[in-house]
Each structure stands twice: as structure tokens, then as C-alpha cells.
Design a protein that fits this description.
The protein has 131 residues and is α/β, with parallel strands linked by helices. The protein contains three helices and four strands, in the order βαββαβα.
Length: 131
């Protein structure tokens, strides 16, 4: 049920297999760290021109490149341990599998509750017991 939204520079759009690999590995890490069930996969990718995608380092001294990934995750509440494991494992896998520098990965996690989700039919499936 977590909804993962990836914002990337357009420069990376040409390599579709690399983007697919990013989506696949983030799905795997999300399932491992959040305990999400098989098939619970909701991912959106948006691409941006450099002038439309300015991601500074908040004074941390990071060097950002055109491989930068901004990931926003909307999910039911998770423990601090689950969140930290997700951040650490995902960035490690992105680095090892895709060769993207950990400085180029920013993750934002937003928690919401069961009443905040409708998967279709105008129903809140977590509340109705359908899920």
C-alpha cells in the first residue's frame, strides 16, 4: 500500500531498463522493511528538466548530479526502526545495483491512516474490511 513517487531528471529517461531496476529494487526493499504483501505495488515516476528540478543539500555538503533521485513515500504509520531500515537498505541497494552515489538519493516519508486510502469504487477498503 505504500505509494512511491520518484522524481528524476529527464536525462535518465532514455535508459528504461535502469528505471525499471530502480522500481523493482525499491519494491523489494519496501516489502522487506515494511512487511508489505506481494502485489502491493504503487509507483509513479516523473521526469524533470534541470531548471524545473532544483534539489539543494540543505547545507550538508552533498554534491548532487543529474542522477539525483527524489523519492516521496506515502504510507500507513511505520516505526522509527522500519523507516531507518528502509532509508539505509534502499540507498545501499541503489548504490550497489545502480552505481548511484548515496548523496544523490533523498527520501521523504509521509504517514497517513487507513481512512486516507481509497483504492477504487469510492470506498475506503481498509475501513470496510475489503483489505
Amino acid at each position: 500500500m505504500p505509494l512511491l513517487r520518484f522524481d528524476l531528471y529527464k536525462a535518465g529517461r532514455e535508459d528504461k531498463s535502469r528505471v525499471k531496476q530502480l522500481l523493482d529494487l525499491s519494491y523489494e526493499v519496501m516489502r522487506e522493511t515494511f512487511g508489505a504483501p506481494e502485489g502491493d505495488r504503487y509507483q509513479i515516476v516523473s521526469y524533470h528538466e534541470p531548471e524545473d528540478f532544483i534539489m539543494a543539500d540543505t547545507g550538508l555538503g552533498f554534491t548532487r548530479t543529474n542522477q539525483f533521485i527524489s523519492l516521496s513515500v506515502r504510507t500507513r504509520p511505520r516505526t522509527t526502526e522500519q523507516k531507518e531500515n528502509f532509508y539505509r537498505e534502499l540507498v545501499a541497494r541503489i548504490h550497489s545495483d545502480l552505481g548511484i552515489d548515496p548523496q544523490d538519493v533523498m527520501i521523504n516519508l509521509v504517514s497517513n491512516t487507513d481512512e486516507d486510502w481509497s483504492f477504487g469504487l469510492g470506498k475506503a477498503q481498509f475501513l470496510t474490511g475489503d483489505l
